[in-house]
Amino acid sequence: MGIAGAFYTALSGLSVNSASLTVIGNNLANLNTIGFKGSSTTFQDLFSTTLGASAYQGNGNPSQVGLGATVGAVNQNFGQSTFQSTSNPTDMAIQGAGFFYMSLVNGGFGHTRAGNFTVNQFGFVVDPSGNKLQGYNRDSRGVIDTTMGSTDIQLPVGATIPAKATEAISFTTNLDASASLLNSRYTTSVQTYDSLGTRHNLLITYEKVTYGTHPDWGAAATPVLPPAPLTNNDVVPNVWRYFIWSPDSNPKTMPPPEGWQTGGGTYTFGTDYEVLAQGLIGFDTGGLMDGNIIHEYDNFVTPDPYDPIGPPPIPSNRFDAAGNPVIEVTWNNGSASQIIGDGAITWTLNTAGPLPETPNYLLTQTDGPSGTSNTSQNGYGAGTIKGLTVDQNGFIIGTFTNGQTYAVARVAMSIFTNNHGLEKVGENIWKETIASGPASIGTANDVGRGAVLGSHYEMSNVDVADEFTRLIITQRGYQANSRIVTTSDEMMQETLSLKR
After folding, report:
1. What average pLDDT does the segment 341-359 reach?
2. Which of 147, 369, 462, 499 has the highest local Cβ count within 10 Å?
3. Mean pLDDT over all residues of the chain?
4. What percent of the chain has pLDDT over 90?
5. What is the separation of C-alpha 432 from the centre of its chain, rounded to a whole number of angstroms?
């Protein structure tokens, strides 16, 4: 092997170090590229040739001279990088394994770690190149079905969600056990919505009652009868009458009870409210509801349930399975009537579930001021989307002007058996190859896929200190090989000078 061979060996060294320098330069150029994953160069030696007439030494060891180096591989580093918080709710980062699954503008599909997404004029979630984020949209049933295959995520920007009529009301109330009959009246309120989204304010009034003054009641549950016959002057202990008033409904006509103002054959409250429903509630000696509620609102000619001589009360379907009163209402603004079996309002008094489970009633009668807390209802008016958030499971959650929040879509993610087999195609996109294996498409936090961080994106994982160290080593390698070239040239000059 002559001096010329050293030129080519050194030339290969210059070539591989140049390639390494290119990789380092690309890493540093993408130091601030969102979702970029750096690469590193590994070298390997070229085929070696034998030296001299014999390929082996006397001791059997081979006599070989290498022919230089070549680039063995350029390996991608898929290590986790740091996160940058943003004010854009559709920016996303992946904490852990996986890629965002993208439908590419030029056709086909790709995968990216760069989650700097925006929403275009059609509601699609796109990256800066216009590639569309894949996922699962909320369907007409209000379900996000991840078994039906991924599609372009399209958010309902500007869409209006319809109103939902109130079908359940709930509140915790204590009635003052020490209040006198003449000073026991207590009124609270709860807001409800009809099918058009109109808000209505219902009032619930309680007052202690006596046997001699309460009217005839239609019974909706078996009441507790007094232990002995009563006279009109006896007081039934621990029984309260309630009235549910509405300003915007068409209540049934009811006979006026003693002591209340009347107007047009119905009860009145102030000048606007009329009775929608009424009933009796009994309490035990410990101040807890005894489970006997009489709820009535359309038939007041049935026998008095507290009259032991009269016939038994007529049963009714005005209760749900847990024993909670169910209120029918027809609003006067043209909205849908709410009747039994079709949107009637359940007044949740028992939160323990259907009987005969141990009940947990929300009404008590203790020696303390009458008061109400924890008021809730499940209706709402129409609303439009006003904000978005993304949770760690990849759900894109919409916040609406009516106070409702629900998931409008879910992000799809891909994972591979061999990330290093992915092919970079530019614009922060990888494509699968035979070496990477096919993509497995699913959702965040499932089967090895990482979590999604909303309002964040992942920075480049290029380490400047590491790259500068590699740069110094590469530079020295290049310089050393260049010295082989100059030394070989000098030796060649000496050989040519032998003829002089």
Report:
1. 80
2. 462
3. 82
4. 47
5. 30
